[in-house]
Structure formats: structure tokens, C-alpha cells
């Protein structure tokens, strides 16, 4: 269970609200686990960012695209690819934050990228990335406590944090439900809710949440694989 779920550590990046065309293309490639298509799009976004180094949004696009690439790299068990994507994405996210330090989403994607690096690096580096991820998500929550994306990211953190340290799956379930309340059309919030439910052996409820995720994002391969791996009872 842990080896499966860690692929999505600290929010896999998700679809919330209206999605711009450039991100829709990235999401389609993620859903198909098409690394080549994502890498081609990232090259274009990086070229645009290099031409406008003072454009925070251009830097953010590079960071977000690399978070998608890191995500599917982990799904495909390509740790080296995941680490590289995280490294490029973290630098881009930090550049975006330097230009616009009050943007919660920039901190959220930084936390996501740091979290995605954890299963791809050694233990010492993982501890460092974990600390950076938590700090970034906390800052994002401070700036925008009504962001569904941020609540989902906080839930993933609680999912991994032991109960005796203030976390645990039950607390994470509350976070994911809050994210769904704020945006009921996010397939990844339902995915994470399912993983937390499955961790507490509520498999029937987990399957329902996974089916809802698939209904919202029927082209994503990983969702269907998780449903197949979840027992009926």
C-alpha cells in the first residue's frame, strides 16, 4: 500500500475548477502516462520562461509541468526521471515564488515537487525534501486556507504522518473531504480519499471513491489500476 500511494506523495497535482488549455494538454499526457509528450511540452514551456525570466507565471508553468512528469515517472518506476523532474521543477517554483511571494499555488506546487522527490532519493535527502514540503504547504495554507488544492496537499501530508505525531489516515480523510467540499470535481481528491479509506480497511468506500475519480477522469490509466488493486471488501 505504501509503495503504491507514495507515488502521489504531497498531492499529486490535480484538476480544480476551470483548467486552462495549456494545462489540459499536460493533463491528457499525464493520464496516458505519455512521458515523451510531456517532455516535449516542458521544453516549450522552458523556452518561453527563459525568454521572460521575470514572468512568475511562466516559471510556474514549468514547475507544474515537471510535477506531472515526476508523477508519471514514479508510476512507471523511473526514479531517476522523477528526481530529475523534481529538481527542475523545484528551481522553477522557487523562481516563481521569488517573483510573487504571496501566491499560495506557487508554494503548493513547490511542496508537491519536494514530496515527489522523496521516493526517488536517499534517506538523508528524503528528510530534507520532507521538511521543505511541509514548510511550503503550511505557507500555502496560510495564504489561501480556502484552496481545495492546498487542503488536498495537507491531507497527503497527514496521510503519511503517524498518528502519534499528529497525523494519520483518519485526519487525512477529513482533509480530503474538505478538498472535495471545496471542489467536488477533482478526481485526485477522490483518489486520495480512496487511498486513505483503503489504508483504514474501508475497501468498499475506497472503491466508490475510485469509481468517482474515474467518472471524472476516465482516461487516466492510474485510476483504473488502483481500482483493480482494491479488494471489494
Question: How is this structure best described in words?
Answer:
With 233 residues, the protein is an all-alpha fold. The chain has one domain (2-229): Tetratricopeptide repeat domain (Serine Threonine Protein Phosphatase 5, Tetratricopeptide repeat), CATH 1.25.40. Helices cover 73% and strands 0% of the residues. α3 (35-51) runs antiparallel to α4 (56-75) and α5 runs antiparallel to α6 (104-117). The chain starts with a helix and ends with a helix. Residues 1-17 have low confidence and may be disordered.
Q: What class would the helix/strand composition place it in?
A: mainly alpha
**General shape:** globular
What value does the Rg take, in angstroms?
16 Å
The pLDDT mean sits at 89
CATH level-3 fold name: Serine Threonine Protein Phosphatase 5, Tetratricopeptide repeat
Give the fraction of residues assigned to helices.
over 70%
- Tell me about the biggest sheet? none
CATH superfamily: Tetratricopeptide repeat domain
Q: How many beta-strand elements?
A: 0
Q: What portion of the residues fall into strands of 2 or more residues?
A: under 5%
Low-pLDDT stretches are 1-17
Oligomer: single chain
Sketch the topology as an H/E string, one letter per element: HHHHHHHHHHHH
Terminal Cα span: 16 Å
CATH class: Mainly Alpha
CATH architecture: Alpha Horseshoe
Task: Please tell me the total number of domains.
Answer: 1
Q: How many helical stretches?
A: 12
